[in-house]
Specification:
321 residues, Spore Coat Polysaccharide Biosynthesis Protein SpsA, Chain A, 2 domains, 13 helices
Length: 321
């Protein structure tokens, strides 16, 4: 078997059929199987899955990491492709997987993404998120995204798969990157739901990817992020902010954020690009951390409003003309 496509699912009746139909419609010379890992859904997810999947694995707990691991245990393919139930593979995706893995050094990758729902705000967000992940790829700090992730099964088994932790795809990326080459490709893409953005908001989405970076910096930060994920406690934001300040710098002067959020992030990104080639890796990481600190403070101060985001979108669109 060449490819095992693994789809974790929990109460996904509204979207899983589109996901599975797109997988089954792939035209490829590769031999592939479809495995759905169902976390005891209470809707029609299992019924729909049975019409398309070669294997259905039932698990007792709703955990993306555990679901993917259970699917991988049943997989017989040389390559594992993890696809979330709200994500649709475009025609030719599996062929691209086979092409990419012709590089013997490549252990895993994610493709870019676009949102299935199209409006100005979502198009803007997908662009900045893809740009951010592409930037990390260019500087050797690639982060893979769990809703669309391909990996060699041998490499997956070597690092013992995903862990049951918050930000599990970022944590997985860190361990896989230590093993060898991983990439974030933007020459092809998947189509995914905007529900993550709807749930977290624009700033929350950006903060999510920054937190993936921060979780590895210090065990205390990882513990705080985990606590915040499970307990949803505002007090923890205060603790997290204190940890940022204490661990990374005693003299960081946080911006007052009198300008729009996205303008600030854009400015910081521009600064990073300018200094990247003339700083040490340690200094470069420190700059990224400073951005993360400011993002955390923004959440704490709750100064983000729809007006801020709309003004920021208008500002950056004007700059891009």
């Amino acid at each position: 078997m060449d490819i095992s496509v693994i789809v974790p699912a929990w109460n996904e009746e509204s979207c899983i059929e589109s996901c599975l139909r797109a997988i089954r419609s792939q035209e490829t010379g590769a031999e592939y199987e479809v495995i759905v890992c169902d976390a005891k859904s209470e809707d029609k997810t299992p019924e729909i899955a049975r019409r398309y999947a070669d294997k259905i694995v039932t698990i007792d707990i709703h955990s993306p990491g555990i679901s993917r691991n259970m699917g991988a245990k049943q997989a017989t393919g040389d390559y594992l492709v993890f696809v979330d139930a709200d994500t649709v593979l475009p025609p030719g995706y599996l062929e691209r997987v086979m092409e990419k893995f012709k590089d013997p050094e490549l252990l895993g990758f994610s493709a870019g993404f676009i949102f299935s729902r199209r409006n100005e705000r979502l198009i803007f967000t997908e662009k900045i998120t893809n740009s951010y992940l592409s930037f990390r790829d260019r500087v050797g700090m690639t982060t893979l995204v769990g809703f669309n992730l391909a990996v060699r099964k041998k490499a997956f088994d070597t690092i013992n798969g995903f862990r049951d932790v918050p930000l599990e795809d970022g944590e997985f990326s860190i361990r896989l990157r230590k093993l060898g080459k991983i990439r974030y490709f933007t020459d092809f893409y998947v189509i995914t739901s905007s529900r993550r953005l709807d749930e977290m908001g624009l700033l929350g989405t950006i903060k999510y990817y920054l937190e993936m970076d921060l979780a590895r910096r210090d065990p205390r930060i990882g513990r705080l992020l985990s606590y915040n994920e499970y307990v949803k406690c505002k007090v923890d934001d205060l603790l997290l902010q204190k940890e940022f300040a204490r661990i990374f710098s005693s003299n960081v002067s946080f911006s007052k954020m009198d300008i729009t959020v996205m303008d600030y992030i854009q400015r910081k990104s521009d600064d990073l690009l300018k200094i990247m080639h003339k700083t040490t890796r340690e200094q470069f990481v420190r700059k990224i951390t400073e951005i993360s600190e400011s993002i955390a403070e923004l959440k704490l101060r709750a100064k983000i409003s729809k007006m801020d985001v709309d003004r920021a979108i208008k500002l950056i669109k004007e700059r891009m003309r």
